[in-house]
């Protein structure tokens, strides 16, 4: 599913983020940036050991912020590492921190001249963010960004499996006027 926002394309696909040949893929990392499970583990395995060596020089990353590295063995040229919130009960600033993780990633991409981005569903695996709410925040934040910034031309959400895809699809249908 896709829709157009301003001069950018917003896409949802079901798939594996490590296979995406875009300017940058986004990693759902932790504050150490030293690897982990889930999508972080998959990205480190696919990118190869130079990624961990580079990450070790970055001084970590606060929740809601983002750091950039090369993509090494990935088809993507760069990796933007962001840290979403660990979900507790939704009253500990989780929505704002999740939105900030997306905004920081988009802004960092733009700063580095990167126009095509692929995101995973940050915080909805090991960090436990309820999927429908996280999908709404992710999509709203990206749509608002694309409406107010014209540099980025593609944002692709790469969803792991049909259940995740369908939740994002439903959320996008509710938010987006033009489905192509
Ligand atoms: N491609 C796309 N999506 C994926 C892939 C993949 N290859 N693998 C998993 N997902 P998670 P978090 C989905 O747990 O919740 C790590 O240990 C997955 O199904 O990767 O932000 C970090 O180091 C889920 O929908 O990230 C942190 O400690 C989504 O990606 C912690 O996990 C995010 O799940 C971060 O937890």
Write the layout of secondary structure elements.
Layout: E1 2-5, E2 8-14, E3 24-28, H1 38-47, H2 49-55, E4 66-70, E5 78-82, H3 94-111, E6 116-119, H4 131-148, E7 154-159, H5 161-175
Helix pairs in contact: 3-4, 4-5
Structure description:
The protein has one domain (2-179): Leucine Aminopeptidase, subunit E, domain 1. The chain is an alpha/beta fold and 180 residues long. The protein is 38% helix and 20% strand. Strand 6 (116-119), helix 4 and strand 7 form a beta-alpha-beta unit. It has a seven-stranded mixed β-sheet, with helices on both faces. It is built from five helices and seven strands, in the order E-E-E-H-H-E-E-H-E-H-E-H. The chain has helices at residues 38-47, 49-55, 94-111, 131-148, 161-175, and strands at 2-5, 8-14, 24-28, 66-70, 78-82, 116-119, 154-159. Helix 3 packs parallel to helix 4 and helix 4 crosses helix 5. Bound molecules: ligand AR6. Residues 16-18, 28-30, 36-40, 42, 84, 120-127, 158, 160, 164 line the site of ligand AR6.
């Amino acid at each position: 599913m896709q829709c157009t926002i301003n001069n950018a394309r917003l896409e949802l696909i079901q798939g594996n983020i490590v296979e995406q040949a875009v300017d940058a893929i986004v990693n759902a990392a932790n504050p150490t940036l030293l690897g982990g499970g889930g999508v972080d583990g998959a990205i480190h395995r696919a990118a190869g050991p130079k990624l961990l060596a580079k990450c070790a020089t970055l001084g970590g990353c606060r929740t809601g912020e983002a750091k950039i590295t090369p993509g090494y063995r990935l088809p993507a040229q760069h990796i933007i590492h962001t840290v979403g919130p660990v979900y507790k009960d939704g009253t500990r600033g989780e929505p704002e921190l999740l939105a900030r993780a997306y905004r920081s990633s988009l802004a960092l991409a733009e700063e580095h001249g990167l126009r095509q981005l692929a995101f995973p569903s940050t915080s909805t695996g090991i960090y436990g963010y309820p999927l429908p709410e996280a999908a709404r925040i992710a999509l709203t934040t990206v749509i608002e960004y694309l409406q107010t910034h014209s540099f980025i031309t593609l944002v692709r959400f790469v969803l792991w499996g049909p259940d995740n895809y369908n939740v994002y699809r439903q959320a996008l249908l509710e938010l987006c006027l033009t489905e192509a």
